[in-house]
Each structure stands twice: as C-alpha cells, then as structure tokens.
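Field notebook, page 411. I keep forgetting to write these up properly, so this time I am using the form the group agreed on. The chain and the ligand, pyridoxal-5'-phosphate, are recorded exactly as supplied. Prediction of the bound pose follows.
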Amino acid sequence: MDIQKIRSDFPALQKKWNGKYPIYLDNACMTMKPRQVMDAMNEYYNEYPVCGGRSLHKMAKKVDGKVNEAREKFRKFLGAQRPEEVIFTRNTTEALNLVAGSLSFKKGDIVLTTDREHNSNLVPWQVKAHEKGIKHMVVYSASDNTFDIDAFEEILQNNRNLRLVSMVHTANLDGYTIPAKEIIKIAHDHDALVMLDGAQSAPHKPVDVRGLDVDFFAFSIHKMLGPTGMGVLYGKHHLLEELAPFIVGGDTVIDTTYDGAKFLPPPEKFEAGLQNYAGIIGAGAAVDYLNKVGLINIEKHEEKLNRIITQGIKDIPGLSIIGPQDPHLRGGIISFTVEFSKGGDAHDIAIVLDETENIAVRSGAFCVHSWFNYHKCEAAVRASLYLYNTEDEARKFVDVLGKTIALFNPQ
Ligand SMILES: Cc1ncc(COP(=O)(O)O)c(C=O)c1O
C-alpha cells in the first residue's frame, strides 16, 4: 500500500486547520472521501442529473445504467448471488429497521443480540418488543470480552422460539469481530435467521455473504469512503421476496387500482420514491477504490497501526483499553477509559487532542449506551483507523495522548 499516494486522493487530508494538517482518527463514525468518489458524483450532477427507473430518454437511461453498475459492484463486493439482493438505503440504521419492520414475527418470537450493540441494532428490537410482543434477549460476552459461544448455545437450547439472531459483526465499541460463521451455523441448526450489522466490518475486511451464509447484512457506505446518507441491506433473495414492503409509494409497485397495489420484486419493492442517484453512483466509485487498494491490505494496515498505538498507550497510568487486549482482535479500533485523579473526563481528552494537534477522535458512549450503563462507565475515548492513516500519525497520537492525560493526572 502506497499510503502517501492514497492520501493525495483525499482533499480533506490536505487542508490545514490553524496551520496544521488533521490527524483523522474518527473513521468508525464517518470516513474521508477520495476525489474519485466526488468526481463520479459530479459527473452525474454535471451531465445527467435526472431521475432513474421510469423515463425513457437518453439521460434517464444513463442513470439506470450507472445504478445497475453500482448494484453489480456491491454484489461482487459482498459475494452475493444476484444484484437484486442489494438494496440501497440511507444507512445501516435504515437497513436494520427495514428488516425489523418487514420480517414477520409472532408474539413470543425471540430476537437475540450481543451485549455491545449500537443503538441501531437495539432500539428497533425494543420498539418491536412493545409493538409486536416479541422478546429481545442478550448474550453476554465472556470475561475476556470475546463472544461466549457456550452461553450462546445454551440460550438457543433453552429457547425454542428464536426467530432472529441480529448481531454486530465488528463492534464499534471496541473493534472486536464475533465468530460469525460459527454463530450462523449454530443459529441455522436451530432454525433461526441471522442478520449482521456490518457497519464496522464491511469497510475494513473482506466480507463474503455466501461463505458466511448470513441471511441479512447491513452496512453504511459513508463509513467506507462513499457519499453521506448511503447504506446497503443485503438479503437472500427468497427472504427479501417474503419481507413485507417497508416505505411504500412510487417505484415500489407495478400497478395500482383505487383498491390495492401490486408490488415489484426486490430490490424495487424496498427503494421507494426517487433515489439518491448521485449517492449510488458515488458508492460504486467507493467500492472501486477499496477494491483497488484491497480489503486484505486495509485490514493488515489497520492492525499494524493498532499495534503501535496499543503498545504505546497500554501502560499509561489510569488508562484501560476496552475489549480484548490483543490488537489482533480489535481491527482498527482502540477505545479506552481514563481515571482522572484531579477531575476531567473523556470529552476533555478529545477536546485537548483536537485543540492542540488537530487529532480527531470520538468521546462519549459511541451510541452503545446500553453497554456503558451495564458496566457503570460514563464515557470513553475512541481512535478508529483507516487506510490513509500513517505510522507517524499513530506515534503522534500516542505522544500527544500521553501528554494530554498527564495534564489531567499530574504526578
Ligand atoms: C456498529 C454500528 N452499527 C450501526 C451504526 C449506525 O450507522 P449509521 O449511522 O450509518 O446508520 C454504526 C455507526 O457508527 C455502527 O458503528
């Protein structure tokens, strides 16, 4: 990987703030965008900024062709069987809500999650529990913060009504990736469906939905170099056919009368109204970019930087890394709490890092409030890496973080 060449594709990394370049370590939230993505979107806006899926003129046909191309790129990216299994959404949250809202549930059906879900894979089940009488259950992590497969199997053996296992594939809390293939095999043996929240896996490592045999897979394109407000739901075709429509109206139906509507097959059934065509086209360019660099290379690169950071910060007095301690198990994420002897909190650390050296990190509960409440932990700091981060940036982060914590915890 030629990191300097990669960096030159990202205009936002070239812009100085208060005379210094940014060190962007908030990639789990949103990634930077390369020129190639913006060029693809500008081409749409400059040359054929029209609707797709309905009109027969040349510009509309061009949009249709570009949307089909992008869908096919995502099919390949995921190893899916058919392009129709790729539904464009606004984000992971919408993709997860689509399944929560459209999958058929009976009263008493169980949905099982981990204990470290983003609110987007927790709140929909809590709402459905209220609306449809389903039961939401949690499998707690083992004491070393990895997935407790024995506890999982025990829940499955004791609960015959399990309908869906819906779990975060790679946690935004700590970067830990669950053993998805094993989990899916066990769940299927118990006749349950499996959905993975891939918001933090798809951008950072190769994902093969057919190899995993996962039923639904949700992720956000804005977390993988693509335009904002774009996501994907993958679903096995026969399951998508069975799902009820979600948001309905224009473009979801083949015909209507005053009395009823006949729905189109997937993916159209789920892509209501005019779409974010520029976003879909930009998403295709983001996939091209990631494929060119190679997901395996990105995964290795992040782990290398994670090792530098983990090694550099693990012995700072008062600092505790959240999740497994081995960086190999945490991909490109380093989350930690700090004990403050003289006052201060995680947000203070984030603000000082930003104010002094333009180091952008995340502080707070990262939308995993349930885990923080359960562990009686108020807030943490998270550094999250991506393909354009450098070893120098990792070392600088270690250095500045050490000095920052020392400001709040003087010897
Ligand atoms: C694991 C995980 N799931 C879901 C989401 C929600 O993603 P979005 O806000 O793009 O819907 C995030 C965002 O950080 C995430 O990290």
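OBSERVATIONS:
- Residues 28-29, 91-93, 118, 120, 168, 172, 197, 199-200, 220, 231 surround pyridoxal-5'-phosphate (CB under 6 Å).
- Residues 37-292 form a domain with the Aspartate Aminotransferase; domain 2 fold (CATH 3.40.640.10).
FOLLOW-UP: compare against the apo run.
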